[in-house]
């Protein structure tokens, strides 16, 4: 029997719940203070400027690393995640931030309630990105800003395929073989099963009503900072991937 979308969302929630205990062990999930945090701050300021007390929603907040970054920038942060074990760790790090359990595609938040919405590495796992983008559009205030940080971790250039062959377990250094198999199974069923390319994501955002869409691939400072935590093979693989940030506005 083919699973329903609801079943797939349950699989996704359970997968990340089981990953929560070791999530911060993986460079690229945890943001180290110092050079890496500074590089992330530059990227976020480039698209969002300083927070100045604006209301920000961190979607798929995980263990709270992006929420921590945004709080440092002066935003009033609300985090939202589907996996309660992730939220438990986030609340432990940031007891003064509100963290809610909900599906990022169905936030249940009030319309026109957020100045900014950010998300890191969520879009690839969306079951229905068009519906998700419409939901986020609803929650944003007019003039509000969306910032997506994501990538295509599926389709690769020739150089990327060579690096992947050298590093068979990919960039997920803390992932067990069983979880890697679950990850592969989920990836085969989501909308972007062939990879979330920036132009495809931008086109969906545009069709949803967003404007002022900017694709930014200047993530090299972040990758260089992360390289200090990786061996040379995993560092090369990460740099070969199609990673990007996309900012967009609600008119």
The top-level CATH class is Alpha Beta
Number of helices: 10
* Total number of domains: 1
Coarse structural class: alpha/beta
User: Approximately how much beta-strand content do the residues carry?
Assistant: 15-25%
Under the CATH scheme, the architecture is 3-Layer(aba) Sandwich
Strand order of the largest sheet: 3-2-1-4-5-7-6
Q: What is the rounded Rg?
A: 17 Å
For the termini, the CA-CA separation is: 43 Å
Q: What is the third-level CATH name, the topology?
A: Rossmann fold
Calculate the mean pLDDT score and round it.
87
What would your notes on this structure say?
This protein has helices at 5-19, 35-48, 65-72, 84-93, 129-139, 158-166, 177-187, 198-208, 220-227, 232-240, and strands at 55-59, 76-81, 98-101, 114-120, 140-152, 211-216, 242-249. The protein has 251 residues and is of the alpha/beta class. It has a single domain, classed as 3-Layer(aba) Sandwich (Rossmann fold). Strands 3-2-1-4-5-7-6 form a seven-stranded mixed β-sheet, with helices on both faces.
In summary, what is this structure?
This protein is of the alpha/beta class. The protein has helices at 5-19, 35-48, 65-72, 84-93, 129-139, 158-166, 177-187, 198-208, 220-227, 232-240, and strands at 55-59, 76-81, 98-101, 114-120, 140-152, 211-216, 242-249.
